[in-house]
Design brief:
This protein is α+β, with helices and mostly antiparallel strands and 132 residues long. The protein contains 5 helices and 7 strands.
Length: 132
């Protein structure tokens, strides 16, 4: 009898609160490689427009996902639907691989919803080569 009462209580609380609208904001900061002229921010923005899936369909952005360029080397993605930051990181890595920049750049999450493109630290490798 008690087990049945628990089941109905949890089911009642599950159904509530589903009417709110989700808004998630992500920023990809590529200012460091963009200032060195090795990363094309406009091409990356175009890539995101073409590749982001909404409801399992590419090119279905509509009003649910907005992609805009913010200042020098920053791209802002605002999603009004369920959207994962890991998916954005995955697409960024995919673009870097396509541009053959994956060997020099990495995608780092600096804070929640903010991803930054950084160069790999190669200072230690150069010091090792001088010793030989």
């Amino acid at each position: 009898m008690k087990a049945g009462a628990k089941g109905t209580g949890s089911a009642g609380t599950k159904g509530k609160g589903g009417g709110g609208k989700i808004t998630k904001k992500f920023i990809i900061n590529a200012s460091q490689p963009a200032s060195d002229k090795i990363f094309d921010v406009a091409a990356f923005e175009k890539f995101l427009h073409e590749k982001i899936k909404v409801d399992n369909r590419v090119g279905n952005l509509g009003d649910t996902v907005q992609i805009s360029q913010q200042g020098e080397g920053k791209i802002e993605v605002v999603a009004h639907t369920q959207f994962s930051g890991r998916y954005l990181k995955y697409l960024t890595k995919k673009f870097l691989k396509k541009q053959q920049l994956r060997d020099w750049l990495r995608v780092v999450s600096t804070s929640q919803g903010v991803y930054e493109l950084r160069f790999f630290n190669v200072a230690n490798d150069e010091a090792d080569e001088d010793d030989e």
